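$ ./design --mode recover --in tokens.txt
reading tokens...
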């Protein structure tokens, strides 16, 4: 029987979605990731949440979902939000751990913070427009349109770092947000100069130190006309801190060493589970693009990217697979469930330790953002609530990947058939015991 185009494309994307989305999975993440359909099923959008947790005497903590490939507009929104927070703890296996801050201080530092708040204010206005179809009459009106957004987030978007209210000029199709600088008066030079953000926003620079040979994530992004997280987000910020295990720590624990924060030298113990060790080794090779499967997937994805119809179909398949990545991975790994436990629980332990350190060493920090794969958040939020006394105070959603089937010449009947086929394939992959 000849394989249909939808089934073939879904199979190709399935070669890489598991490794690409491994940071998303582990527990059901429906509160942190969802797919919304519009236009009779012709428009599908993968959305990730921003959930705010608070506790008296502690900074507000915002759980910001990450996905490795997405529309550039998603990374623009994320950048604007994260840059406006006091501290960002982000996911990045193998990244540097030191957090030493920067050299800027006084008005120079406040000018940088004000520029970040301008981008953040613009992001909230655009989020309000997506919700209602039009801009609110003022920045303060965002809270009326998005009532689940924590009030502290609205407040941070309405004043500059000197505490002066932004001047806002709203129009039907756009806006300007203006800070009058350190002197609070029009004009001026240096830090006293006015800072203005128009509707188009401010495009951030690209992180320069990327791998010479692109891995699966970059190949997938290029084929589907999306952006890769490490290119879409600029991590070079003085208030951002890598909050993750190193590659050596992760490999040591997976292969039988101590858990994060445990005693003894990592790797001393023999592998606890041979299947876990094999799964870990395969995962690391796939992510680095070294395995034969990775090379084959790269060739096939380049082929997919040459045709707009196939690209659209592949984006739809990927969107659905990412949304169910936790379920699929759990079934595919079988007895190697230790891998998921380590990826989620141990890495979350590092985040919680860093959060406690921020609370102790930076008492002036009013907000901390955790930028991680959405699959980490069920465990992380539970531990913050049960062990640290936080509670949920608000949430809102950001669109990550939008697929417009109608623009690819696909009608409602064809769209329904495509979704049904992708769903059947995912059900088969998620069937317990399939990989055993």
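writing sequence...
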């Amino acid at each position: 029987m000849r394989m249909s185009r939808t089934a073939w494309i879904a199979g190709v994307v399935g070669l890489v979605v598991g490794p690409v989305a491994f940071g998303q999975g582990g527990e059901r993440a429906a509160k942190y990731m969802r797919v919304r359909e519009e236009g009779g099923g012709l428009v599908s959008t993968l959305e990730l949440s921003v959930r705010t947790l608070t506790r008296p005497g502690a900074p507000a903590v915002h759980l910001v979902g990450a996905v490795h490939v997405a529309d550039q507009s998603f990374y623009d929104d994320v950048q604007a939000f994260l840059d406006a927070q006091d501290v960002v703890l982000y996911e990045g296996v193998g990244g540097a751990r030191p957090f030493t801050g920067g050299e800027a201080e006084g008005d120079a530092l406040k000018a940088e913070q004000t520029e970040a708040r301008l981008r953040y204010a613009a992001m909230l206005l655009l989020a309000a427009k997506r919700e209602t179809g039009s801009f609110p009459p003022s920045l303060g009106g965002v809270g009326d349109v998005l009532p689940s957004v924590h009030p502290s987030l609205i407040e941070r978007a309405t004043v500059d770092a000197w505490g002066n209210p932004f001047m806002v000029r709203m129009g039907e199709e756009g806006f300007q947000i203006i800070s009058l600088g350190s002197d609070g008066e029009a004009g001026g030079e240096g830090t006293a100069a006015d800072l203005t953000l128009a509707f188009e926003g401010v495009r951030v620079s690209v992180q320069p130190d990327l791998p010479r040979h692109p891995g699966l994530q970059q190949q997938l992004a290029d084929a589907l006309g999306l952006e890769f997280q490490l290119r879409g987000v600029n991590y070079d910020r003085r208030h951002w801190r890598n909050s993750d295990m190193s590659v050596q720590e992760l490999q040591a624990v997976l292969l039988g060493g101590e858990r994060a924060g445990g005693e003894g030298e990592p790797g001393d113990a023999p592998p606890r589970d041979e299947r876990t060790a094999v799964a870990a080794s395969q995962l690391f090779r796939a992510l680095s693009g070294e395995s034969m499967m990775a090379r084959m997937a790269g060739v096939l994805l380049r082929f997919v990217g040459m045709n707009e119809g196939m690209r659209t179909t592949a984006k739809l398949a990927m969107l659905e697979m990412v949304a169910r990545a936790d379920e699929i991975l759990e079934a595919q790994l079988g007895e190697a469930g230790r891998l998921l436990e380590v990826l989620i629980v141990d890495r979350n332990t590092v985040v919680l330790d860093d959060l406690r350190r921020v609370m102790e060493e930076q008492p002036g920090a009013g907000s901390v953002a955790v930028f991680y794969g959405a699959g980490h958040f069920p465990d992380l939020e539970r531990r913050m609530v049960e062990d640290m006394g936080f509670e949920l105070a608000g949430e809102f959603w950001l669109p990550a990947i939008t697929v417009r089937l109608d623009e690819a010449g696909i009608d409602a009947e064809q769209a329904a058939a495509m979704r049904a086929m992708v769903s059947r394939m995912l059900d088969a992959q998620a069937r317990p015991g399939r990989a055993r």
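exit 0
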